[in-house]
Design brief:
This protein is 29% helix and 22% strand. The protein contains five helices and six strands; from the N terminus they run ββαβββαααβα. The chain has a four-stranded antiparallel β-sheet, with helices on one face. α3 packs across α4. The protein is globular.
């Protein structure tokens, strides 16, 4: 029997909208083994992004439990990275500073953090753009900065919420190839 690396156990997530309750997820269970690649497919608005936010620890389930490596997911962790559908960059921070947010709670020395940020900007084709601000980037470049932020901590679970949707076909193929090089955490 293989132990689950990521376990979703009877998770429901309800949202209050005025006097009504909207159920985004209803009694969802899922087990993911270490090293397994899982794709969740469904219509727009069916709860895919909600599930990813719960797995990342950015939201809390109404009921049920989520575990990662045996521990209950109750808050964000460097062990679980997420890349959103849109970049979600802070406009007052440079690209380098936005990517460095992925290491904010890391105990790595400052020099190693700086090196990792530089490596990951290179990885997504943004070497030389670390000092610019998000408004100075194209949409695809901003999305690649968001991808670098999700990868920079080398999480052992990477949650991707349609991150390549804003990229052209050539850049999308390059990112898929290059981002595999980031691999599991080895710091």
């Amino acid at each position: 029997m293989t132990l689950s690396h990521l376990q979703v156990d009877h998770v429901t997530r309800n949202f209050k909208i005025e006097a009504d309750t909207l159920t985004a997820l209803d009694d969802v269970s899922l087990d993911v083994a270490k090293g397994e690649f899982v794709t969740i497919v469904g219509a727009s608005g069916c709860g895919k992004s909600t599930l990813l936010r719960l797995l990342a620890g950015l939201d809390v389930a109404s009921s049920g439990t989520i575990r990662h490596a045996g521990d209950t997911v109750a808050q964000p962790s460097l062990e679980r990275g997420i890349v959103f559908q849109e970049p979600r960059l802070f406009p007052w921070l440079t690209v380098e500073q936005n990517v460095a947010l992925g290491l904010l709670n890391s105990r790595l020395p400052k020099a190693r953090k700086t090196e990792l940020v530089r490596e990951h900007l290179e990885l997504v084709g943004l070497g030389g753009f670390g000092g610019v601000y998000p408004h100075q980037l194209s949409g695809g470049m901003a999305q690649r900065a968001g991808i670098a932020r999700g990868l920079v901590s080398r999480p052992n679970v990477l949650l991707l919420d349609e991150p390549f949707g804003a990229l052209d076909a050539i850049t999308k193929a390059d990112c898929r190839t290059n981002c595999r090089k980031s691999g599991p955490r080895s710091m």
